[in-house]
Amino acid sequence: MDNLEGGMTKKQVIVFNLDKLNEEDFLNFVKEIKELDDSLVPEQMQFSLKELKNFFSNRKGVNLVVKNNDGKITGYLASVPHNEEIKNLKKYDSLFKEDNGALYIESLAVKKGDLGTFNNLLEKLIDEASPRYKKITMHARASEGNNLSHVLVERYHFKYLRTILNWYGYGEPFDYLEFYFLTEDVSKKS
Question: All domains of the chain, ordered by start, with CATH?
Answer without folding.
Answer: 2-138 (3.40.630.30)
